[in-house]
Structures are given as structure tokens and as C-alpha cells.
Design brief:
The protein starts with 5 loop residues before the first strand and ends with a helix. The strands form seven sheets. Strands 18, 19, 20, 21, 25 and 26 form a six-stranded mixed beta sheet that branches. A four-stranded antiparallel beta sheet has the order 1-30-29-28, with no helix packed on it. Strands 2-3-4-5 form a four-stranded antiparallel beta sheet, with no helix packed on it. 34% of the residues lie in helices and 25% in strands. It is α+β, with helices and mostly antiparallel strands.
């Protein structure tokens, strides 16, 4: 019967909307527009969205191709045609994690998995009270490791509170396991645990049954992880007429190790957050580094090349140190090029810059390095447990290499601290002496405490001049080495490796190669810069983290292939307004998978509903749905004549699962004069006796062209419908948990929101009849009372 779905809002948007997705838990809807922006709006739909995620300006292809909500509704995944997937927190538009893939994202599906409830209860009983927030395989590292300080305002992780790195990726409250399945255009799909950790990379082209496959249109993983159902294109002889198939994949390894995958994924998230934190810290250090010493070196080089007197610049400074006299050229250079004021400012800048770098290394680089080393050590222990974690692809050797890279990086950061300490000591003494000499040249008074120098100070300045003022002027060297710190932040070998004082430990290692080659001794790369070792660290850690995806992906194998339909690609079908929809839904019991699809560009005459049983045989049932007059004759008799639907035939625009029991369908009246859209609710149970079973081995037969498929007029099975007058619709989005729907106009710039749980309104004519009847009964009662009094 026609139901008065209550209209809530009707709003216009500035840019054409291409995707809509309701949050499963909150009254929020995510909208992606043609400009590549993602907007978050509330059901009440204020004029300004809650937040706007700007387009990916770094990518050539900026369009948003997929949206998916995490099951708890706290994180939104956004997929781009460039292959980038970003996770955004509902509380703000900041990106909490991003993944870059090689190919454009076609679709995404985020679903939760059901681990064994009995095992979960046992974990809760045996786990310590303070560790219960960790769920399966509780992680107590946060109880022992020091908290990392927040990064500076220049970091990509700015404005984060001190709640731990796991919370930065919104995983602290995640119990159990949820999976984000990302589908691509080239037969690839990735399964990301918690939307972050790539636990399986499935290449369907590498398997015999799907070797000629094309784009993956959509995929869903069953709650127990034993199967994946994928709808994809199968490339045939005629590329303009592509066959679309349903592929069933077996994923026994994922199902048998779901608890271990949850533990590994959280460890992956922590290590990834630590790597981002380290990268942000290095960025802050680079910005804190001053290049003013390089300018001084350039001025000294220019002076050395142009001066007319004999001898080197170092000799002239030594004469000034010993005899207190300088040549006329040197005086002119010091007083006009450097100037006393500039030298004083230079000293403050160098000291401030070096002090900032020291603080960042001591407070952040060392802490994050030690924390990263701890997390990798735990991962190494997990990898040694082969039956649980090693079988997932964790390699102890690769993790050991990553730990060695972390150790080498920490050693280089300690070396940098020594270089900074020595440089500060040298510059303070040299600048103080040179400042006093320049003040004397200008005949300005000097404070005795500043001008006073001892013999050891003179020797120190002399050693500094001899070490940093040389005669070597080449294309790669300026002849002056005032700047020793900046070379550590270049992706090239050190031009002046640190010598330092003799270290007995390093001498011992050189004398005992068997000890130096031990896995417990971190290698010291004397010639490498800090950024070079950071790049090596990124490479080794990435090698550790990607192996799991390859190993688990190889364990996923194709079991069955069911041809669905043949599609014809036209320029119109490839437009942004048209997306050949295919939706899959798993009810709460997890034993069935519902699939709805169409075989041509909407609006279409038929909609296909398929039911795939995971436990029974025959396991595949299909029915073709057409829509004539909506609602049964009995239902229509209860509705006033003015609201009875006038159209005898409808065409399908879009479909989505409202909940486990209801299918929502967006129709268009197939009438030459009136083409309003109609929003329908179809109970899934009404199709139980309408589906026809299909053989399990149906290869070679396109289902939609088969004569054995039962065709049903689903118009009379519709439980509720509502005509959307004066609305030409393009697509819609529904949410059974929030009891709402949003219908997008054909132009893509206007949206109408409906409350789907409104009680049916009484018809005015019926209300008038009821009022008349009540009035008549009142008159009769009054007459009877009057007659009784008379008697």
C-alpha cells in the first residue's frame, strides 16, 4: 500500500553529486561530488556541512569512485580513481591513514567478521583487567612504553593529543575484526584489516578460471571469512560486449587465523603510525635547520677567489689570531660583508637552530626509534611462532633486517648529536674571538669578560681554523666546512664524515669481525647520512609489512564461476551519471548472501535478485523482477481513489538493501505523460518461493539470457511505496538502521530526504466518513435516551 514516507528536507548542492552513503550508526550521510570533494552532512542538513574533505591535489585523477563506512560509523573510507584510499575520522576531516595502490579504485565494502563467541568470552575471562580493552591477544605495550610527545605544528600529525599511536588510527576501541575490501579495475582486490593493514592481495588474473578477467565490480567477504563473493568482468572475444560473472573464492587461511590477523593488524597500525611520526619529526628537524652557515661559506669562497694578496684565507685569520693584525682586504671583508651585527645575529641563529635539532632528536627521534624497535621485536617473536603468525607471511629474517635498520638510524642520530655538540662549542669560541677583533677594528669598547682569552682558547681557535679553512676549491667543495650538520639531511653520502675521538667499543668491533657480524650488533654506516638511513629504514619495514598480503593472497583460490550477464559498453554508459549497480548483502545469520544487479543502463525493465546459500545445496537461486501496478488490489482498496497509482508499468532506476529483510527499489513510471519516481519497499521473504534454483556448474551459460529463469511481477509484492511527485530521480541511498532515505535528482544537484518509518496517515475522506458515523451514533444514542425518559 502507499505509505506516506515523511519528507524531511530538500536541499540543493553547489556541485553535482556522484556518490551517497549513509552511516550505519549515526544520522550522517557522506556525499562525493564531481569536483572530488567529500562532504559530511547530518540528517537535519544544515546549510554548511560538518566538514569537507578537499580533493587529492597531488593525483592526476581526482575523482572519488567509492565510499565505505566502518561498521561502527566512526571512520569513513574514500577511494579515488588514482588508486588512493584515505580514512577520515567522523570527528574531523583530517586523514588518519592513507594507502596508495597502483590502479584506480572501482568499489569498496567494509564489513565486520564474527569470531567465535565462545573463544572471545574465554579471552575476556583470562585476560588481565587492564588489558581487556585490547580484545583478542591483548597488547599491554602502552603500559610500559613512554608516551610520545605531540609533533610540532609543521607535522602531518599535528594537534594530536597524547593518547597513544593506536588511537591516532582509531583502533583503540576495536574489539574483534573488521575488513575493508577494495576492488580495482585490473582484476585485483585487497583485503585491509581495520581498513589499514593489507592482509591479502588477491590477483584474479593469476588463477586459471579467471585468467582473462577485467575490472572487479564489487566483492563481499562472509562473516566467517571462509568465502569471498566477487562480481567482475570476464574479458571475452568481443571487448565491446563484456561478460559479467560471479566468482566464489575460498579463503580458509584467513578464516582459520582471523584472531591472529586481528593482532597483526593492530601491530601493523602501530608500526605505520610510528613511521609517520618519525617522518614528521624529520620534517620538523629539516625545517629547524638554518642554512645561514652556507651563506657564510659562500661569502668566504668569494673573498678567497677575489683577494689579491698571497696566502690563504686561513693564513690571514691565523695572522689575526697571533699578531692581532689583519690585511686591509680582510678588514673590509669583515666590516662590510660580515659586519659585527650580522656575526652576532649569526651566532644566535646557529645556537637556536642546533638547540632545536638537539631537542627533537632527544625527545622524539630517540623515543620513537626505541618504541619502533620494541614493536618490531614483538613482531619478530610473533613471526617465530610459525603455526600462528609465521604462516601469514611474517618473515623473521626480514624483521631482523628492519630492526638492524632502526638500530643504524639511532646510531646515526647519536652521531649527529655529537656533531652538533662539537659544532656549538667551536662556533661559540670562534664567533666570540672574531666579534672581539671586529669591535677593535671599529674602535668600539669591548667588555673585558668577553675579550679575555687564555692560551687554550687561542689553541682551540687555531685548531678550528686549520680544520675548517682549507685550500681545496673544487666543483663539489667550497674550501670551507663550517656547516657539518646540514650534510646529514641530504640524500647523499657525507662529504665530511664524523671522526670524533677514539671509541674503544668501535675499536673492539674492528678487531673482532665475528662479534661485529652478530645479529645483536647494529651496523654503523659511517659514510651514510641520516636521510639515507631513513630511506633504508622505510624500505626494510615496508618489506616486512607487504609480505603478509602476498602470502595470504596466494592462499585465496577460485572455487566456482557463475556467468551473470553480458554488458554493452557505450560512451553514454561510461558517463559519470551512470554506474551499473551491483549490491551484495549478508544477513545477520551469515548463511546467505543476497545479490542484486541489472544487465544494462538504467532505467531498465528487469531487476535480478540472486540468493547464494553458503550451507545448502543447490546454493544458487535467481529470479527476474519486473514491476507493473504497485501493491495488491486489497491494499489499493484501502487507499483513496486520488492516491491510487495510475501507472501500469515501472522501470528500475536503482536498488539497495534497506536491512536484512527489506529491499528498497527506486522506480520510474513508464508513462509517456508522467514519469515521476517511486520509492518502494519489497520484503525479501516474499521472494522465497519465487526464486528458481540454478545448477552449481553453470559455466558457459549467461544467466540473464537463460529461458529457465523465473520472471515475477514484483509490483504486487511491494509492501509500501511512495510516489515522488515532480521528481525525476537518478539514484538513492537508504539506511535501515536510521530509517531514512535520500533521493538524488536527475541533475545531481538536489537531494530529497525521507523518514521511512512514518505511520500511515489517515485519508481525509475516510476521516470524514468516520466523523459522520460518530455523529450519527451520537444522535441515535440521544434519541434512545429521550424515548426512555418519555416512557
Amino acid at each position: 500500500m502507499q505509505q506516506a514516507f515523511r519528507q524531511l528536507e530538500e536541499r540543493s548542492v553547489s556541485s553535482e553529486i556522484v556518490l551517497m552513503e549513509w552511516s550505519p550508526k549515526m544520522d550522517l550521510i557522506a556525499l562525493a561530488n564531481k569536483n572530488g570533494e567529500v562532504l559530511l552532512q547530518r540528517l537535519t542538513w544544515q546549510k554548511q556541512p560538518i566538514w569537507v574533505l578537499s580533493p587529492c591535489v597531488d593525483d592526476d585523477a581526482k575523482s572519488v569512485t567509492a565510499l565505505a563506512w566502518r561498521p561502527d560509523g566512526k571512520v569513513l573510507a574514500v577511494g579515488y580513481s588514482s588508486g588512493k584510499v584515505v580514512l577520515c575520522s567522523v570527528e574531523g576531516a583530517g586523514v588518519i591513514h592513507s594507502s596508495n595502490f597502483r590502479h584506480g579504485v572501482r568499489s569498496m565494502k567494509w564489513s565486520s567478521t564474527s569470531l567465535c563467541e565462545k573463544e572471545e568470552e574465554e579471552d575476556e575471562e583470562t585476560a588481565p583487567q587492564e588489558d581487556k580493552h585490547g580484545g583478542i591477544f591483548p597488547d599491554a605495550s602502552d603500559l610500559y612504553l613512554p608516551k610520545l610527545p605531540p609533533l610540532s605544528k609543521h607535522s602531518s600529525l599535528k594537534d594530536q593529543d597524547d593518547e597513544g599511536l593506536e588511537d591516532l588510527m582509531q583502533l583503540k576501541d576495536q574489539i574483534g575484526l573488521n575488513l575493508l575490501v577494495v576492488c580495482f579495475d585490473n582484476g585485483l582486490l585487497y583485503i585491509l584489516a581495520f581498513g589499514i593493514a593489507p592482509i591479502a592481495e588477491v590477483n584474479l588474473k593469476s588463477q586459471e578460471k579467471t585468467a582473462d578477467c577485467g575490472a572487479v565490480l564489487g566483492a563481499v567477504v562472509t562473516p566467517r571469512l571462509y568465502s569471498l563473493l566477487v562480481v567482475m568482468e570476464a574479458s571475452k572475444d568481443k571487448p565491446e560486449r563484456k561478460e559479467v560473472v560471479l566468482v566464489k573464492l575460498s579463503s580458509v587461511l584467513l578464516a582459520s587465523r582471523s584472531r591472529e590477523i586481528a593482532k597483526y593488524a593492530k601491530k601493523y597500525a602501530k608500526i605505520s603510525a610510528l613511521m609517520e611520526y618519525l617522518e614528521g619529526t624529520l620534517k620538523a628537524i629539516t625545517e629547524a635547520k638554518e642554512d645561514i652557515l652556507l651563506e657564510i661559506e659562500a661569502k668566504l669562497t668569494k673573498y678567497a677567489e677575489q683577494k689579491g694578496t698571497e696566502g690563504t684565507v686561513g693564513d690571514e685569520f691565523l695572522d689575526l689570531l697571533v699578531w692581532g693584525k689583519a690585511s686591509l682586504e680582510l678588514q673590509t671583508f669583515l666590516l662590510q660583508e660580515l659586519t659585527a651585527k650580522g656575526l652576532k645575529k649569526l651566532g644566535h641563529s646557529v645556537e637556536s637552530s642546533y638547540s632545536s635539532i638537539q631537542k627533537l632528536i632527544l625527545k622524539q627521534v630517540h623515543r620513537v626509534g626505541k618504541t619502533l624497535l620494541f614493536e618490531l621485536s614483538e613482531l619478530y617473536g610473533m613471526a617465530r611462532w610459525y603455526d600462528k603468525f609465521g604462516i601469514l607471511g611474517l618473515s623473521p629474517e626480514a624483521i631482523q633486517d628492519a630492526m638492524s635498520s632502526v638500530g643504524s638510524f639511532l646510531l646515526k642520530s647519536n652521531e649527529l648529536l655529537q656533531v652538533i655538540e662539537n659544532s656549538l662549542k667551536n662556533f661559540k669560541a670562534f664567533f666570540r674571538w672574531l666579534f672581539v677583533q671586529m669591535m677593535r677594528m671599529m674602535e668600539e669598547p669591548v667588555i673585558p669578560a668577553v675579550s679575555k682569552m687564555y692560551q687554550k682558547d687561542i689553541n682551540f681557535v687555531a685548531d678550528f681554523l686549520e680544520e675548517n679553512f682549507s685550500q681545496d676549491f673544487s666543483e663539489t667543495k667550497s674550501g670551507f666546512t663550517l656547516e657539518h650538520v646540514g650534510q646529514y639531511f641530504k640524500k647523499e653520502d657525507l662529504s665530511h664524515p664524523f671522526t670524533g675521538s677514539s671509541n674503544p667499543w668501535l675499536d673492539f668491533l674492528e678487531a673482532h669481525p665475528e662479534v661485529k657480524s652478530s645479529m645483536f650488533i647494529f651496523p654503523n654506516h659511517r659514510e651514510k647520512s641520516l636521510l639515507q638511513l631513513h630511506d633504508a629504514l622505510i624500505e626494510t619495514v615496508s618489506e616486512v609489512l607487504i609480505k603478509t598480503g602476498h602470502m595470504c593472497g596466494q592462499s585465496v583460490i577460485v572455487k566456482d564461476v557463475y556467468p551473470l550477464y553480458k554488458s554493452v559498453e557505450t560512451p553514454e554508459s561510461l558517463s559519470s551519471k551512470y554506474q551499473q549497480f551491483m549490491v551484495q548483502h549478508i544477513p545477520s545469520d551469515g548463511n546467505l548472501v543476497y545479490t542484486v544487479f541489472i544487465d544494462s543502463k538504467p532505467p531498465v525493465d528487469s531487476l535480478y535478485f540472486m540468493k547464494h546459500s553458503l550451507t545448502q545445496s543447490p546454493n544458487l537461486q535467481l529470479v527476474r523482477l519486473q514491476f507493473g501496478v504497485l501493491g495488491s488490489s486489497l491494499n489499493q482498496s484501502t487507499v483513496s481513489q486520488s492516491s491510487v497509482n495510475r501507472c501500469q508499468k515501472h522501470r528500475v532506476l536503482d536498488a539497495a538493501f534497506y536491512d536484512d529483510t527489506t529491499l528498497s527499489i527506486l522506480l520510474q513510471e513508464a508513462d509517456d505523460t508522467v514519469q515521476d519516481s517511486v520509492l518502494c519497499q519489497l520484503p525479501i521473504c516474499s521472494l522465497d518461493d519465487k526464486t528458481s534454483s540454478l545448477p552449481t556448474n553453470s559455466q558457459g551459460t549467461v544467466l540473464t539470457e537463460s529461458q529457465d529463469i523465473l520472471t515475477v511481477d514484483a509490483g504486487e509484492l511491494v509492501s509500501h511505496y511512495h510516489r515522488l511527485e515532480n521528481l525525476r530521480a537518478l539514484k538513492f541511498a537508504v539506511s535501515g538502521s536510521r530509517k531514512v532515505s535520500s533521493v538524488l535528482f536527475l541533475n545531481g544537484r538536489r537531494i530529497r530526504l525521507f523518514d521511512m518509518d512514518t505511520e500511515e496517515e489517515e485519508d481525509p475522506s475516510t476521516m470524514d466518513s468516520s466523523m459522520n458515523l460518530t455523529q450519527s451514533e451520537s444522535d441515535i444514542s440521544q434519541n434512545i435516551t429521550t424515548e426512555s425518559i418519555d416512557i
